[in-house]
Design goal:
With 314 residues, the protein is an alpha/beta fold. It contains 15 helices and 8 strands. A hairpin with a 4-residue loop joins strand 2 and strand 3. The N terminus is likely disordered.
Amino acid sequence: MAFLKVITKILGSSDGKALDKLRPLVDQINALEAVYEAKSPGELKDVSNILRDDFEEGRSLDDLLPDAFAAVREAAKRTLSQRHFDVQLLGGIVLHQGKIAEMRTGEGKTLVATLPAFLNSLSGQGVHVVTVNDYLAKRDAEWMGAIYNSLGVSVSALQHDYASLFHPDDFDRNGNSVKEKRTPRKEAYAADITYGTNNDFGFDYLRDNMVDIAEGRLQRGRAFAIVDEVDNILVDEARTPLIISGPSQQNPNEYSKYAKIVPSLREQEDYSVEEKHRSVSLTQNGIAKIEKFLKVDNLYDAENFGQAHFVENA
């Protein structure tokens, strides 16, 4: 009964069909627990390769979910002495389906994220785990890295001014990180799972859109993301725009040149002002004056497009 209450709370609905779809998945994962308990460390580490091969051969991530979740649960038991409970398995399924799972502090949401993160990393396209600050990004990557390590999966953490890569070889036999390897940002994005803040991911995306060649881009794509504190990041933080500024490529003398034209123009006769849209439109008379000043036949010809832009800004 408690299980059903938890499902209803997470889904936000008591729809019987939704419950019927989720309960068998949890049962399948539980049925595989003994199978994965019997695996040696080497066999457990090879699970990711086996599941990747299955994915490449045509099996969907949904098909691989029971085995992937069972493997993560076993890895967590061995490295962190923590076992995913049924409600946490459920939370992982919900996140994999692209839904929001509401979990209170202390209910193990960091551990829950490892389930869909590992599963979706099997596609080879990378997974982004979005946290609210740099500290959590690094902490969670290193902490949960012990789980990913035992499954043969690499993990990285983005920081404001650098990035760290936690490769499976960077952990000792107990799953503890033995070193922090600082790495170029592009290599951090090449990891199977990348932790970082929404600002880090957002600004790197903007920078990628400013490069001229594909090889200069940091991110290899945006296939799957898990967002922690989703209400804060997608609602509250969304009010703060991400802006990248840089030195102007235009000659400042150009602005001075066109600014000299403006005082000679008269409102209504040469231009009209639209207060509502905060814009200015030239009249035919105004266009004629400017064309005479610039010594061009048509201000709005393609070859004069840049000049028209300067005039309107002036």
